[in-house]
Amino acid sequence: MNIPAVLGRDVDRGLPGWQLPAFCLLAALAMAVAALNSGTMLHGLVDADRLNVHLLLEIFAVVVSSLVVLVTWHSRTLEQAVSVRNLLIAGFTLTAGLDLAHALSYEGMPDLLTPNSMQKAIFFWLSGRFTASYSAVRLFHAAWRRSLTKS
Fold first, then answer.
1. For FRET with 60, which of 69, 83, 94, 150 sits at 20 to 30 Å CA-CA?
2. Ranges of each domain in the chain
3. CA distance 107 to 59
4. pLDDT at 142 over 50
């Protein structure tokens, strides 16, 4: 199964040859600017502003994980293995929940069941990263096994 067929595009109609290199160049430029300015941009923030920026970025991560779940859920009609679909749904639902728990247990937020601490926030963050990584590795492994059985 190829990506254009999944997206509903004709296989013959690809992207123009200049779009991918241009996107990569713009992304590299944005990362370079962010890396050069990271110390000066965050240096002037007070703790309350830093907490707001952190919460905003974590909510963005929760939204992205939720969108992966929603797209996977609504692509049930596509020719896709049920185990892969269930893996994506379960893995990224858990990732979204752990990211939300991380955002809510960050020091400076109201207490979440127990007093918030940096250790508690790091635990939820590492758990979320492990879950997302494990889901991705299992997904690639399933795709690799599926490609071996087709050939």
1. 83
2. 47-150
3. 16
4. yes
